[in-house]
Design goal:
- By secondary structure, the chain is of the alpha+beta class.
- The chain has a single domain, classed as Arc Repressor Mutant, subunit A (Orthogonal Bundle).
- Helix content is 44%, strand content 12%.
- Strands 1-3-2 form a 3-stranded antiparallel sheet.
- It is built from 6 helices and 3 strands; from the N terminus they run H-H-H-E-H-E-E-H-H.
- The chain is globular, with a radius of gyration of 14 Å.
């Protein structure tokens, strides 16, 4: 079990997957979900470490939101850390780009049906 002083409280610190260890299908699966895509797009438009998990306007409850962030961490897309009572996030843009060149740029583009 994690030391509470290391994780900022009673919960365990988040586990992160290095993007270099992520298979392509894992990355594509993480990005295929509309809620996760919205989270990634919102993080892409925000300063690093400024968005807490509860600051996203997505149509899911806390448990589902936690699951979505777990999937994004597992795909190497998101890094999280605890800041006091909040868990803040950053998009691992550079690391993910090094692993999958151009993929993140494609999914961050506005949907263009033309």
């Amino acid at each position: 079990m994690a030391n509470p002083t290391e994780s900022g409280g009673h919960r365990a610190a988040p586990v992160h997957t290095e993007p270099g260890q992520v298979p392509l299908l894992t990355a594509l699966s993480a990005l295929a979900d509309p809620v996760r895509l919205e989270l990634v797009r919102a993080l892409a438009g925000s300063e690093e470490w400024t968005r807490s998990c509860g600051s996203f306007d997505v149509p899911v409850g806390k448990a589902a939101l936690s699951h979505h962030f777990s999937v994004l961490r597992g795909a190497g897309l998101v890094e999280q850390r605890d800041q006091g009572p909040k868990r803040v996030n950053r998009l691992r843009r550079e690391e993910f780009e090094a692993r999958f060149p151009g993929l993140l740029a494609l999914v961050l583009r506005a949907d263009d049906p033309a």
